[in-house]
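so im writing up the methods section and need the 4-hydroxy-3-methylbut-2-en-1-yl diphosphate synthase (flavodoxin) record in one place, dumping it here so i stop losing it
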Amino acid sequence: MSDNTFQASPIAIASALPRKSRQARVVWRNNVVTVGGNAPVRVQSMTNTDTVEAVETAIQVRQLAQAGSEMVRITVNTPEAAAAVPYIREQLDRMGEYVPLVGDFHYNGHRLLTDYPDCAQALSKYRINPGNVGKGDKKDKQFGQMIEIAAKYDKAVRIGVNWGSLDQEIMAQLMDQNSLRAQPWETRQVMYEALITSAVSSAKLAESIGLNPDNIILSCKVSGVQDLISVYRALAQRCDYALHLGLTEAGMATKGTVASTAALSVLLQEGIGDTIRVSLTPLPGEARTQEVVVASEILQSLGLRVFVPSVTACPGCGRTTSTTFQELAKQIDDYLRGQMPVWRVQYPGVEAMKVAVMGCIVNGPGESKHADIGISLPGNGEAPAAPVFIDGEKAMTLRGEGIATEFQALVESYVQRRYGSGA
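--- predicted struct ---
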């Protein structure tokens, strides 16, 4: 370069913009999950069990909570499901799991919450979709019944609009208005407006009925990445309610993960969004908790939260002669995630730990020095030795067939020493 001088001002460090929403509280016993304002962006998930199967549902709720979900939504669609909710709550409480439960209501929620008051009280939050609480004169009446019960028990409410079940009366009205414009909007833009109008007008109606505005959370779910970004940018400008983000029907595996990450990351970086859910369709045999892992990784990658120690690992190349480092990286990552339900309590701060598992000497020692604890495994043509770095200094060299087991033991020892009560 011809000019070696530094610029007059440093390059700005990227960070998400601050959020400007109200703060809701989702509560069960002493567990208060704040949503919005200066609270952390929260992770939410949903069971896929039949809610009537109370024990099975409670077990899955606990699994999701231990994976990092701070609220868990369950389907409440029948009288039998509503009757099961208090038993699910009781099972969780017996296990010492006080994660708030969110009831997902459609079509008949007004009757279920009225006829099953124990269900209404066992839930910490209600999810109501304005597009399917009734039609015509019944719509506002049935919506109002649910809001009155939420206000009575001081429950949070998510008013969740979905473009797959959009209020057709609002959509028809806006389409009629659009036809009178000199330059009509595109149909998609009218749909955006219908989503936002439905959400905000329903929130204002809920306030007029008596619901605390701080207890209102809004969402406008769509399945397209650019559509979600467009809708939430506009929604955030028109209200200060806490916002729940999620790409509805995101899909399976890679597609669902990538699409959700792309949409949510843009909005979160702009300071939009207070809770998130990654709606993945599980692969056959895949744990439901995978959607919690992805949501947590999105927030951790953006620097908004830390949930589990991060594992840095190289992708492998012609210099790496075996899959040993890949296997070790997965083994360590699985081990750390498996330990977190206990470690969160025993070792405060451990979630911020950084571990490096590298495959050769090119970047291995450097990455290991940047990590709290790291190992550089031998690559092609290198001596059969694996140097271990702890707190930036070379601590030892491992050799032989037991490198993986020895390194895992070193990680566990490091956690106890650095984050234990005597640290």
